Amino acid sequence: MKRLLLLIVRMVTLLIAISIVSFLLVTKAPIDPLTAYIGANSTISEEAKEEISEYWGLGQPPLERFLAWAGNTLRGDFGESIVYRQPVLQVIQERFQYSLALMLAAWISSGLFGFLLGIAAAAFQGSILDKAIKTICLVFQSSPTFWVGLLALSVFAVNLGWFPIGLAAPMGKLASEVTLGERIHHLILPSMTLGILGVGKITLYTRQKLLEILNSEFMLYAKARGEGKWQMIRRHGLKNIAIPAVTVQFASFSELFGGIALAESVFSYPGIGSAVTAAGLGGDVPLLLGIAVFSAAFVFIGNLAANILYGVIDPRIRENGSFHKKSNTPQQATGHGLDCSFRSKGRDI
Amino acid sequence: MEGQKNKPVLEVEDLCISFEMYGKGLEKYRLEMVHHLSLTVNPGEIVAVVGASGSGKSLLAHAILGILPGNAKVEGRLAFCGQCLDSAAQQKLRGRDIAFIPQSVEYLDPLMKVGKQVLGTGARREKKQRMARWKQVFARYRLEESVAGLYPCQLSGGMARRVLIAGAVMEPVKLVVADEPTPGLSETLAKETMENFRELAAEGCGVLLITHDIDLAFQVAARIAVLYAGSVMEIAPADDFSGDGSALRHPYSKAFLQALPQNGFCPIAGSQPYAGNLPPGCLFAGRCPKRTDACAGKVEMRTLRGGEVRCIYAE
Q1: Residues of B in contact with A313 (CB under 8 A)
Q2: What average pLDDT does this structure show over A287-307?
Q3: For chain A: N or C, fewer Cβ within 10 A?
Q4: Chain A contact for B185, CB < 8 A?
């Protein structure tokens, strides 16, 4: 209970800090929302401009504007987007569906491929396969997303024509008529681009961890008991590398968020990423703040999920985190609760 | 006790273990850690290998099981029940006929329940027999069935020890190699562990007990080999290690015994030479009270009064 409370407090303070910082950044940005909205060479009259400015509250001091925004937000009203002229929540909701599909596809495929490639590389350490995987991962990790995206576009969409050039659905089709297959077809290139960003990291990490574990004492013992290499990896390796792999994969949530801004721009994919680009360029403070708060919460939840998963995988973490530390006999300890830290060496005291 | 018709379970002849190391830059060199080690273990016999840390005891155990790291080179002859024990044979025999009992619970997978680890691996069709055997083994070592559901970090020292032995005897093993099974255990637990080894030996199993605890070794072992800087200095019946060690042959074994707390606690000056920086001839010469110039020559193992010794002055 206490831990849960602490987590909630931490999340709330994080969100407050994020919104203050983003607000400051947006107000200090050299983009004038008014000019961005009506265009630089518009013929609109000065009075009309002032009216809009007053309607948006641009003349008020920043602190007041922030407090007004915060007050409304607490009541569930994130305001109206200047660029899209829709309530911010609605914009986020619509766009997030697309982004979520994109991120999940990229996240799952990069996690899965990375894990498998990492295992293969570690199992054949020093072989040509290992070297090839390592090289590819380093190349992937050091290539910028937008460049990979453009490359993928020009090869697979333009030259080969296998995939559409952009958007989330065929152009000129009613939203109700778009099939799932078409959506997936549109999703492949952007999610691949985004996934390539993450796969290198998880592969190299998995490889490193598995190598460490293969050199551990319990692997030596497993070998002494007649287990073969793959049997050892399956029986003892997978679970032991799952924790670091899960950590890295969940920590990459934030990178994914950064990645979608670029990937979606390249593929004109109508997700959160392209919305944030538009909001930033248009000086759309409400939308920008809404998205910042929303994505911070999302990343926070991602990391929280990783924390909870450790406990599921690793009994040592589960036990140190739990709050009953009194039981000492094996009968009581079978379920949960024995604190291991003070006898982790397996010695009698 | 030797039973002439039975071949020794384990024969080690002229075993040398060396490692390929990198010096400055790309310069490679070999570092020999164990030199011309010979020893046999007969069925039903406990042979102890004692020596200070760094004397190469664990390397011997790992070499027998074939679990040395990749840069290690093993020379000499190993045989199991008369068969040559090459790496293919090791792969087939380890875990089935040759069991390894590790030092501590650290050798168990921290994320796997103990029961499953004791059960080990085996063909699926034998699952029923394995489960039955598993129950027997657990009962034999006074492990409650609830222990099976624990993780290694939840075991007490005594339980961990019994779990590790239980894991070793899941199969009808003929040779048990125990690498430092007692450090960190209380005296009672250490004695209990030794009792377990004695039982195994009584069932006809050969036991190679690697330890630095000469006291315990002397209580259960038939013969004791004293290792120093990777060489066997002396192999003697355990009885010779009783009292002040006057029955012993090698000056190092005597010194080793006299350095024990109950025997006067009197250590000798100097320390074990490092591999790669070994003196020619007798390795102990630098610290030996009986040393002469002849000790710098080659010193072979020779038989003396029912034991073996590597010293030209032993009598």
Answers
A1: 111
A2: 83
A3: N
A4: yes
Radius of gyration of chain A (CA): 25
Picking from B107, B111, B150, the nearest residue to A240 by CB comes out as B111
- The structure tokens 């660029």 sit at A83
Residue B142, φ and ψ in degrees, nearest 5: 50, 45
A222 touches chain B (CB under 8 A): yes
Whether A165 is covered by a domain: the verdict is yes
Residue among B146, B152, B184 minimizing CB distance to A347:
B184
Mean pLDDT to the nearest integer, B44-73 = 88
Top residue of B60, B147, B153 to mutate, by most chain A CBs within 10 Å, is B153
Three-state DSSP string of chain A: CHHHHHHHHHHHHHHHHHHHHHHHHHHHCCCCHHHHHHCCCCCCCHHHHHHHHHHHCCCCCHHHHHHHHHHHHHCCCCCECCCCCCEHHHHHHHHHHHHHHHHHHHHHHHHHHHHHHHHHHHHCCCCHHHHHHHHHHHHHHHCCHHHHHHHHHHHHHHHCCCCCCCCCCCCCCCHHHCCHHHHHHHHHHHHHHHHHHHHHHHHHHHHHHHHHHHCCHHHHHHHHCCCCHHHHHHHHHHHHHHHHHHHHHHHCHHHHHHHHHHHHHHCCCCCHHHHHHHHHHCCCHHHHHHHHHHHHHHHHHHHHHHHHHHHHHCHHHHHHHCCCCCCCCHHHHCCCCCCCHHHCCCCCC
CATH number at residue A159: 1.10.3720.10
Give the global pTM. Answer: 0.77
B156 in contact with chain A, both atoms CB, cutoff 8 A: yes
- All structural domains of chain B, each given as residue ranges with its CATH number in brackets, are 10-97+171-309 (3.40.50.300), 110-170 (no CATH)
C-beta atoms of B95 and A227 within 8 A: yes
* pLDDT score at A1: 65
A346–B152: do the CB atoms touch at under 8 Å? yes
Q: Which residue has the higher pLDDT, B115 or A310?
A: B115
Q: How far is CA B69 from the centre of its chain?
A: 18
pLDDT exceeds 60 at position A346: no
With contacts defined as CB-CB under 8 Å, which chain A residues touch B112?
Answer: 235-236, 239
Residue A310 lies in a domain: yes
Residue range(s) defining the domain that contains residue A125: 88-318
Q: Which residue of B has its CA nearest to A344?
A: B153
Q: Is B190 on the interface with A (CB under 8 A)?
A: no
- Provide the pLDDT for residue A320: 57
- With bands split at pLDDT 50, 70 and 90, how would you rate the model's confidence at A332? very low
Judge whether B8 is closer than 8 Å to chain A, CB to CB.
no
Residue A42 lies in a domain: no
Of A227, A334, A338, the CB nearest to B146: A334
Q: How many domains does chain A have?
A: 1
Q: Which of B189, B181, B190 is nearest to B57 (CA)?
A: B181
- Provide Rg for chain B, Cα atoms: 20
More confident residue, A197 or B90: B90
Min distance B69 CA to chain A CA atoms (Å) = 9
CB contact under 8 A, A236 and B108: no
Q: Is B145 touching A (CB cutoff 8 A)?
A: no
Q: What is the pLDDT of residue A340?
A: 37
Rounded Cα–Cα distance for residues B164 and B133 (Å): 15
Task: Flag whether A110 is in a domain.
Answer: yes
